[in-house]
Each structure stands twice: as C-alpha cells, then as structure tokens.
Write a structure and sequence with these properties.
Distance between the termini: 20 Å
Order of helices and strands: HHHHHHHHHHHHHHH
Keywords: Membrane, Transmembrane, Transmembrane helix
Number of domains: 1
C-alpha cells in the first residue's frame, strides 16, 4: 500500500470514533440507544476490510436492525434471560443461513437486549440509524479505494452464508456458555458478552483469521492474540466505567479508548472487530459490576477461543476429507 493509500486508510479510523461519540452523547439522554456493536461494525466495514460485512448495504440496513428488534421482543417476552439468549442465538444463525448472509454482528445486535435487559424500542431504532449511515457510506463510496483486505477479494465470487456445520458448531459452543451462565448463580454478564459470539462465528467460519496454512504454533499465537484483544478492550472499558460511572465524564475517555483500540487493530493488521464493541459494553452493566464484567469476558473469551479453535480444526479435517461443509475456511 502506497503513501496515499496509507493516508486514506488512516483517515478511516475516524469513522468508528465518530460512531462511538454519537452513541455516547445520545445515550446521556436515552441510555437504550447505546449499540456497542455499531462501533465494531464501523471498524470492520470501514477500517479493517471485512468484505463479507460490506458486501451488501441493503442487507446491512435490514438484517442487523431486524435482529435487534427481535432481540427486544425476546427481552420483553417473559422468558428467562438465558432462554431468550438461546432463542436469539439459534434464530439469528438460522436467519443468516436462510438469506445467505455473513453479517455476524447481527448476533450481537439480537443478544444485547436479553443479556443486559434492554427493553426499549429506542434500541432497534438506534441500530437502524447506525446501520443506515454505514450503508449509505458504503453505497456512496463504491469504486473508491478501500481497505487493502477488502480490495484483495476483488474478482472473487461473493461468498454465501455460513456453512450449516459451522453454524451448528457455533450454536453448540455459544449455547453451552449461555446455559452455564444461566444456571450459575451470580455469573457476570461479561461471560456471555454478545461480541464474544461474533468473534466465535468469525473464528469458526470467517476470513482474515490468519488460520489457513499456518503452523500449529502460529495458530496458538493467533488464538492468544484474539483472547488478549478481547480481554484488554473489555478491561480498559470496564476500568473507565468503574472509575467515572455512566455520566458525561465517561464520554471523552471512552471515545479516546475506542480510537486507540481501532488504531491498534488496524496497525497490527488484526481483522478482529469485536474488541471495538467491548470497549463500550461495560456501559450496559451496573456501575459496580464493571470489574466483574471484565473477569467474565476473560473467562468467556477463553472458552470462545479454545472451543472455537477446536471447531475450526474439525471443520478443516472434514474439508480435507471432502465432506460437504458448503463454506470456506480460507484465512
């Protein structure tokens, strides 16, 4: 990438920061509008070159808001939170499979209401606004220089949805964690923080993980880096919220932290947007629960990375044997 391309990509770092700033300011008046995954979506689509997320502006502006609306419906349904989370998990995985979409952030959009007791319809409205702005930017920016990872797929056929086997494995791995958290007394919400499941789905059947063709040692390093990025983002966000609370004082520090996390992801070429969401998720917890949230994320991320890595290995083994997984496992 030349100097001009580097400069253009660097300017893109501003977009997720502006998304985070807008949500944090609006949340001071209406807390339910906070959509942490919006910052991760902006990071993935605009900065990190998640081509599967940016493939269809039309689906971006419909699938994710519909998932958010369904999540609020489940949160208001009277089901136990962990039951609503399971229904939302299976429902979104099925939806993505049926329509052939790889918009993994729809998982987070659907599960946030059940995990954090968000029942206001201001939440799906906020999701629709964020996705609409990103989709408009994508539509207007077609044909302009994009992130290198997005350009590298030029000329390749658009991939269909996640493979049935990958979706099933994700449902089992994530569902087990949800059940454990649901039946455990006092389990921290961070254990099932929805961005963890976006990370899991991308690890099991996503592009840009640095997995395909890598040695076992490098794969272990990849998993360790993914875990560390999730825990560091959640821990720093929890530290800020724990010290400053949920008021105006938290806005500038969290926006600065969001910019730092996205810059590190971009600078290291780590195509792993969920940490950009985890910076903001502590705002959805109670003031005194922020520290426990970070501990929960560390445990949940360990399960996601460990079990997700094993699931990826299993899918690769089946692929080598010629099993019809109907998905790609390229990195």
């Amino acid at each position: 990438m030349g100097e001009e391309g580097t400069r253009a990509s660097a300017w893109r770092l501003v977009v997720p920061v502006l998304v985070a700033l807008g949500m944090l300011l609006a949340a001071q008046a209406v807390p339910a509008v906070l959509f942490p995954e919006g910052a991760a979506l902006a990071s993935g689509v605009v900065v990190l070159g998640q081509a599967d997320w940016a493939a269809s502006p039309g689906r971006l502006v419909t699938v994710v808001p519909v998932a958010a609306l369904g999540g609020v419906g489940l949160a208001r349904s009277g089901l136990a939170p962990w039951q609503a989370e399971l229904v939302g998990l299976v429902g979104v995985l099925g939806l993505l499979r049926v329509i052939g979409s790889r918009l993994a952030p729809a998982l987070s959009a659907a599960l946030i209401p059940s995990v954090f007791h968000v029942t206001s319809f201001a939440y799906p409205a906020s999701v629709a606004v964020v996705c609409g702005l990103l989709a408009s930017g994508l539509a207007l920016g077609r044909g302009r220089p994009g992130p290198p990872a997005a350009r590298s797929r030029a000329g390749r056929p658009t991939r269909r949805g996640f493979s049935p086997l990958a979706s099933s494995l994700v449902a089992v791995v994530a569902g087990a964690l949800i059940v454990v958290a649901g039946v455990s007394q006092g389990a921290p919400a961070g254990l099932v923080a929805p961005p963890l499941f976006v990370s899991l789905l991308e690890l099991v059947d996503g592009e840009g993980t640095g997995w395909a063709g890598s040695s076992w040692g490098r794969r272990g390093t990849t998993l360790a880096v993914r875990w560390a990025s999730l825990v560091a983002a959640a821990g720093l966000g929890a530290l800020v919220v724990g010290e400053l609370g949920h008021g105006w004082a938290v806005v500038v520090p969290l926006v600065a932290l969001e910019g730092l996390v996205v810059a590190v992801l971009w600078g290291r070429g780590l195509r792993h947007p969920p940490p950009a969401a985890l910076v903001l998720v502590p705002l959805l917890t109670g003031h005194f629960a922020a520290g426990r949230f970070a501990v929960g994320v560390a445990l949940g991320a360990a399960w996601v990375c460990g079990a997700g890595g094993l699931a990826r290995v299993g899918l690769e083994a089946l692929r080598r044997r010629g099993a019809p997984t109907r998905g790609t496992l390229d990195g």
